[in-house]
Amino acid sequence: MLQKFYEDTRNRLSLNKFMKSYHSYFFLYSFVVLLILGFHLNLFSYNKEKAKKLFIEHCSKCHRKDGRGIKGVYPPLKNSDYVQKGDKIELLRGMLFGRSGRIVVNGEVYYGVMTTEIDSTLNNEDISMILEFVYRELNSMDVQVSSDDVIKARKLGKLQPHK
Ligand code: HEC
Known about the structure:
mainly alpha; Cytochrome Bc1 Complex, Chain D, domain 2; 2 strands; 2 domains
């Protein structure tokens, strides 16, 4: 009787132990998988302060620090319908290689030339962060941009001038 009770308890304890270690392995494993996935999708690389600094250095000369641009000369990036309805790869191609021709932003027509020097000075992650800043901070959109997107944009090359 006592012997049986003793054995039962021992079995239960070791089963408990097994379940516990099984659980902790499961959590550890899931955590590692999520971490790797997160890094792959650039979930942790976005850094608002750094992104803002890059934006000011590379874009604010024309689009202004607040992203509102100059009406008729430099189109706005803040609350821009072009950004909001646009395609991120197309926007990246413009950032990488410049863009020109007729473009309508928030109902205003622009015939400008955007030159940029970001291609030779910034890495893919920095470039993706600038566009993510434009989406998140200037357009309140939750869009993630990754280094892979920048690689895709580089492969497609310069945009045709808008007609
Ligand atoms: C030398 C001035 C200049 C710089 C620097 C510049 N842009 Fe532009 N940008 C322009 C002009 C001019 C246009 C309009 C081009 C046209 O008329 O086709 C434009 C258009 C755009 C557009 C599409 C229209 C809109 O307003 O939504 C985006 C997006 C954009 N720029 C993002 C950027 C980002 C991001 C940077 C910084 C990496 C940058 N630009 C740097 C001048 C500039």
